[in-house]
């Protein structure tokens, strides 16, 4: 049996289906800041044709008890339809996208391009002294690529945060 | 849109549609205060007779009055305030209702939609400010949404765990024509809290309870919120089991205090027997309480040997502070009904011998008589605050009138909880979660509006009462015969007590300096002012207070240095409780870890 507040931390990817109304994101963020929960990543966008529902994907971490709390607290918000802990309910896919600007000339530039190719990053803009790469993948793949780019002239990054979905036929 | 709605759209203003929705929701009373942004509503109110408006003297008081109304009736309390300062003044009341799960709908005026965001006169970002102060809030941006949102606000305020809901109403929405829509009959799109308990959880709970050797039943405000039937079922269940029952501050009255199965309140200022029983239990059933820190003390030492069953309407209450073995989500009425049926259906016989032993142990704790105090009967002697409340109870009980008690916050509040027993639910209004000084007078006002013939008493401290003293004007205007019973110790007594016990008796800023003459103050507000200086005068003052059918302030001068015991010091366990000076063998004091706690 588990004791309050203690126990190992884990990361959780939580999908929340919400009514697409003003203030709903502020409510979710306010819940996290007000109760001192972590937000490692948060993404949101409408996901239904009529734009009535949005899906929020939150990556958070905490003890099992805290994560259960987060889910229960999210679930009792009035505009929330469903809360799904993707990291617990079978396996799931997580992806994010990054736009990465690398500035340089000569060898470093060549090396950046070679690595980008190895990572299957796309060049979506180029000048004689810069590239903008677009890279999609799991968070750790993006992190690894950025680590490699740092000594090669990395000047700017824009990341979307995580979008996630369950594998197979299961839906939220 | 049908023809009927189209017709309404061309004839009725937003303000009229708002009132129509309120009437359809059964609203009879609104507590409010006018201002520019809500003038269209006041104009519409003026032209109808079904909804009564009670003009308070401060918007905070409007919310507390609505809370008192709601708690004493089980209905939703309704508040109407203007934009900007009207809304910000209401915030304390909203948080109070949120913490204590009281259903309130608060209507706020707002600048017209085209000015929102421009820092217009009396503009405040009300939905932004109150997002964490309410269960939910709405800004009505389109006339077509108005009626639906008002209906939804009432549903959300009451459904699941109740709470305050705010509807922000821009002035143009109130003036422009709006269509009406009826109360919805279909379930809410996204918010449908579970009320029916899981039968498996009920079976598991009964299996634990039947095999208990040292059980305790612990109930909270959730039982009151679920309605009077829940309280009746609770009595039936507790009596059927014969198990000891204790209650949180918020739950008092759900189980009759006069029943020998009741151990009194538990927690920081709970009884010795309730806390020791909790500490020693092997099975605990919590119904509608939330393991608040005032109840648990140090969490890792709270009821350490018990299997815990927690029944609550709010899934987020489960495993929040205390890990439980069986969680039951649902409405307290349905849970209690299911528990009763399952107890009767389960063939297991409770362990009679063990229970008899347990009761014997409990009676030993009870025999300590932890609430005893010594009152001199010398007529010129100083009145002990505990004695004042004891006499208040005895003399009000003698009137046989239906009696409602509200309190402010401080020692007097705890003494009221300890010495004024309740046998019925909905008779006790106190600010538990937020601990809001200034709650009691406006709450009493709301109770008296709902129960014009009842005896309504605010047990107050001399410091707290000044926080909403302006409401004496409201009492006078509406001839509300609320009695304000001030335990005047000339200190912020609860602050003074903590300073004595934790801060070397350095009474920093806790003396009530330059107090008003409460008798004259009462008179200037068209009320009756009375004072008891000593034991000899106490009964006479109480009797006179009860006899007059007018608002009264009774200024009861009590012992300035009295402390509230028993007390579980912050950060201590239940079995480390401090008993009063009447008792031998003090437990240890407050630890360094305890010092940082409030
Ligand atoms: C609005 C508010 N401010 C401050 C406090 C902190 N506080 C708790 S009890 C108390 C003293 C109350 O004094 P009084 O009303 O005289 O009651 P007593 O404890 O003397 O019975 C104070 C200042 C509070 N609970 N509420
Ligand atoms: Mg005082």
Please give a quick description of this structure.
The complex is a heterodimer of chains A (172) and B (598). Chain A is of the alpha+beta class.
Describe the structure.
By secondary structure, chain A is of the alpha+beta class. Chain A folds into two domains: 10-85, ACT domain (Alpha-Beta Plaits, 2-Layer Sandwich), CATH 3.30.70.260; 92-165, ACT-like. Chain A, domain 2 (Alpha-Beta Plaits, 2-Layer Sandwich). Helix content of chain A is 27%, strand content 41%. Chain A contains four helices and nine strands. Chain A has helices spanning 24-34, 64-75, 107-118, 139-149, and strands spanning 9-19, 41-46, 53-63, 80-85, 92-103, 122-127, 130-137, 154-159, 163-166. In chain A, strand 6 and strand 7 form a beta hairpin. In chain A, 27% of the residues are buried. By secondary structure, chain B is of the alpha/beta class. In chain B, the strands form three sheets. In chain B, strands 2-1-3-4-6-5 form a six-stranded parallel sheet, sandwiched between helices. A six-stranded parallel sheet of chain B has the order 9-8-7-10-11-12, sandwiched between helices. In chain B, strands 14-13-15-16-18-17 form a six-stranded parallel sheet, sandwiched between helices. The termini of chain B are far apart. The mean pLDDT of chain B is 95. Chain A binds chain B through residues 1-4, 18-19, 22-23, 26-27, 30, 34, 65, 68-69, 72-73, 75-81, and chain B through 127-128, 131-132, 135-137, 139, 141, 156, 160-161, 189-191, 193, 299-300, 314-316, 318-323, 325. Thiamine diphosphate is lined by residues 408-412, 435-437, 461-464, 487, 489, 491-495 of chain B.
